[in-house]
């Protein structure tokens, strides 16, 4: 879901916070 965040999609839920 967080495609804008250039991060390893390890935890998609955590990616939203970052």
Can you characterise this structure?
This protein is mainly α. The protein is 22% helix and 0% strand. The protein is built from 1 helix and no strands. The longest helix is centred in the C-terminal third of the chain and has 4 residues, at 12-15.
List keywords for this structure.
18 residues, mainly alpha
Radius of gyration over all CA atoms, rounded: 6 Å
Mean pLDDT: 60
Structural class of the secondary elements?
Answer: mainly alpha
In whole angstroms, the N-to-C terminal distance is 12 Å
What fraction, in percent, of the residue positions are helical? 10-25%
State the helix count.
1
Estimate what percentage of residues fall within beta strands. under 5%
Low-confidence stretches: none
Largest sheet features: none
* Total DSSP E strands: 0
Quick rundown:
With 18 residues, the protein is mostly helical. It has one helix spanning 12-15.
Topology:
Layout: H1 12-15
